[in-house]
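Researcher: Next sequence.
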Amino acid sequence: MKTQTIRDVASLARQRRSEKGWSQARLAQAVGVGREWIIDFEKGKSTVEWGLVLRTLKELDFQIDLSPTLSAPPRAATDLSSILDRTTRRRP
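Model: Next structure:
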């Protein structure tokens, strides 16, 4: 799933925590933070520390894939041989 905001990430994390049957306290213990930090994170607080977010996502078995956004559709492959053939043909 594509995420665009910290709220998106927080929502996925909260859902995964629930799927695992973990309480906020259980997740906090696994991450090494207080329950209040988990509460803030799950609310989508924008000032949460990234290192802790990454550690939390790891505990929840998330894989993180950072891929660039394509601003334009990919272009078709260029056939360099045909271009070269056209440009090097002799004209009568």
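Model: The longest helix spans residues 6-20. The CA atoms of residues 67 and 73 lie 15 Å apart.
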